[in-house]
Amino acid sequence: MKVKAMRRMVAHGDYLDDEESLRAYSYDASGVEQIPLVIVRPRHVEHVRRILVHANQYRIPIVPRGSGTGLRGGAVRKDAVIMDLRGFDTIDKLDTQLNTVDVGAGVTFKALKEWLATHKYSFPLEPSNQMATIGGLAAQNVITEESMLFGDWTEMVARIECFDGLGRFQVLKGKDVAKVLGWEGSTGVITKLRLNVIKTHKRTADVIHVNNPSEALAHAERASQIQGTLMIEYLDEFSSKLMGLSADQHVFIVYANDAGSYKDPLKVNELVQARKRLTHALWNEGYLFEGEASLEEEQIERFVARCEAAHVPCYGHLGVGIMLAGLKSAAELEKFRVNVVALGATPGGKYGYGRVKKEYVPQALRKEAIKLKDQRDYNMILNPGVYV
Amino acid sequence: MKHDVDQCVLCSLCNLGGEAYQLSKDERRAPRHVVWNLKKGRETPALYSFMLNGRTEAHCPVKIAIDAEVIDGRRKLVKRGVETVENKKMVEKILDGKNPYKS
Ligand SMILES: Cc1cc2nc3c(=O)[nH]c(=O)nc-3n(C[C@H](O)[C@H](O)[C@H](O)COP(=O)(O)OP(=O)(O)OC[C@H]3O[C@@H](n4cnc5c(N)ncnc54)[C@H](O)[C@@H]3O)c2cc1C
Ligand code: SF4
Description:
The complex is a heterodimer. Chain A is α+β, with helices and mostly antiparallel strands. Helix content of chain A is about 30%, strand content about 20%. Chain A is built from 13 helices and 17 strands. Chain B is an all-alpha fold. Chain B has helices spanning about 20-25, 30-40, 55-60, 65-80, 85-95. The interface of A and B includes residues 28, 31, 86, 280 and 283 of A. The complex binds flavin-adenine dinucleotide and iron/sulfur cluster. Flavin-adenine dinucleotide binds next to β3, α4 and β10 of chain A.
């Protein structure tokens, strides 16, 4: 009854409680499955406000959701109302003086990319899943290959419009955006964002054959000294082959300037896209599970050696200290996580923590989450079970 | 080589090829959801509104034979007696030796 009252709070047809809808929102790309209470699809900030105020009154958990492409089960929860934010789907106001664009949280990365391209602009943090929404990517504070030069979403988002857990509308700017970005929908519901965009720029690349990870690290060190280095990627033999290179270890470096030896924009783009599709190519080879590890530089060599010994394909972002591995089963993934912990590293960092990796949330982050929840969502309405 | 629905990793890239889904944003019509249902052994009537134009399949990084799986699912639905009214009428006309397209 208390949940049913939400039907009046959204437009006709945007309150879904039929069996097939509940099923369709019961999972995301993590494979976690939990049947929610109902789905609401707000299209206006007033819809969001009403729902959150009501949810507070009756302590009904609310889970914000974009395209459900998250890999950590953050957009899934039983006994919760799923708030599908894809109705906030407008792109407007490209400010060519300040180089910003205002975009609704429900716009997909693909739609934004195509829209910006027609204006000769781009948003540099490009995820490999272009179906993800801008709200979802920001809520996850997604790290991409380009994070090396451009940082994370907290650096590329100038301003957000959002609601806290009490249903209070807020405009957060500058450093304050970090109160919501990265907290996976547990400290705020984002409805609109102002993104820093860049004029489409020249990119060049180097593909360097190396004999071992320590040579790769030496190249990475040199490249990181060059101003404008956009990404530094390590590729083992197998990953290199899948990217269309020779079956040797490589370092793949992309520059936002003229520094690389590959200068043909089409060739550079082809290489970048092949790198972005590497996970997909691994899936096609039966490596359906991706392991991730946040590593210090001195741990990388040991990580690669262990992968090699276990015949596990590995690759990753040397530029930001995140390495990835292709695995064939859930059991292999579990073993991988244990190994990463044994190395003294964190088996996470790229795709958030969500419900799947909650146990790996570092203590300091958990403490910060509790502080933010106290300020912004003391009734624990927003995505409970994620972080706290 | 094409794979079967068991290999689906739920990435949702096939949704890029689902025109009806793109327009409606209705998750029940999402190609990913159709595949998810098939993976669970749940052939739902939604299979009948799935467009067999190869576009969803073209986006699938795992190379799942989505169209073939949908056709197979439809076959199972028909065997269970779950079919559209139009389909039923057409079959009846064929069995009666009549033109299935003439109303
Ligand atoms: C093939 C594939 C490739 C991927 N590549 C990358 C990659 O390169 N880099 C990367 O980091 N991730 C990647 N991911 C993971 C995923 O795409 C990202 O995590 C993305 O941020 C999820 O966006 P979404 O719109 O699907 O959000 P959802 O999955 O719907 O939600 C993700 C989280 O964000 C919250 N959320 C969603 N929208 C909002 C909102 N408007 N306000 C507040 N909270 C919200 C949800 O509560 C949830 O906790 C990939 C996934 C797949 C399947
Ligand atoms: S693209 Fe392929 S693997 Fe991804 S959800 Fe669709 S069917 Fe599954």
